[in-house]
Amino acid sequence: MRDRTAWKAPTPSRLRTAAHRVAAATPAERDRAVDALRAFAILGVVLGHWLVTALVADGGALRTASPLHLMPWLAPVSWVFQTLAVFFLVGGHVATKGLASARARGVPYGRWLRARLDRLFRPVAALLTLWTVAACSLLAAGADTGTVHTLVKLALSPLWFLLVFAALTAATPLLSRLNPLWPLAVVLHVDLIRFGLGGPAWLGWLNLAAGWLVPYTLGAAWTRGELDGRRAGWALLAGGAAATAGLVVWAGYPASMVGVPGAPVSNLDPPTLAAVTFGLAQCGLALLLRAPLRRALRRPPAWAAVALVNLSALTIFLWHQTALMATTATGLFAGRLPGLHTLPDGLGWVAARLAWLPVFALALTVCGAAFRAHEQGPDRRPSRLVRSHRSEAARMSGPGVGA
To answer: In angstroms, rounded to a whole number, what is the distance separating the alpha carbons of residues 120 and 124?
Structure first.
């Protein structure tokens, strides 16, 4: 007798069926543009890191290098893939909307916050555990300490984002009515004191909170309905782009919107006024794209792809650097490979690195399959959308998958 649960290849017709099931399971009131913007922001950061982070094999050690340092004309790449402001915009919108909904249902602030922080930090435990074991094993095996430091620093670098995001989430009741001009004014004055008056460099770390408060409070303004018109989007896009151009051309800010090793000033570590105004332009563009995205995501295949990314958003974000390093370390067995272990100093490296992107994606898929359960949690009842996605995955993969 034929086994009905036997694995079946994911043919185009079955993929279309799966996409329609996911679309049908999505509540009608869900704003799909919010999920799309979150997915674009996460994927932008991932691709940006994969394109501008090079691990150069130097003798028996690995060291980091950046193509933006050796090829500064590639700075526009950072304008496309530095999308953190959009993530904070969406985060502020979702958090303030969720808090208002919780209050309406009588859910205490403490319970609401614990639920959100649990979703944020549950996947972190797996990352910390794996890299603690990996670092100890490498050191015990006699690996170069500089190499181990480089790998651990890269692997754990996404955690700074979660700490800042968690702090802003906890302060959501205080931030829900805050005008974005206030944190913007803080960033302006900090940079004026640092760069214009020769103030201490440590003062810039005030911008770590104030800089990301700007898009987060813009998200709160979105929840309040203050950014519904297209005029707001155009004002943010045009004003932010003009201010950023002026700061780069006339005030001497770096053109790259990510840190460049060896550069005297980083726009991101900590955030500068140029990074914040650039974020305003990105937020304006994101607001303008809401309506087109909602129309595009009426198509089941497009929405299913966005839903799939959102189901594993934190896993993708936390493990993408590990996927890069795992590929790089494995490739060393084949020798010094172009675009993977070589110095990023020319177009040949760029072409080779682009060819490696599918391999990084495959490694990230393996990490996602291994660790996505830590994001969902063993006791958390999944949403109807998640259950639909999992059940369809089970039909296409055979028994036991997605259970």
So the answer is: 8
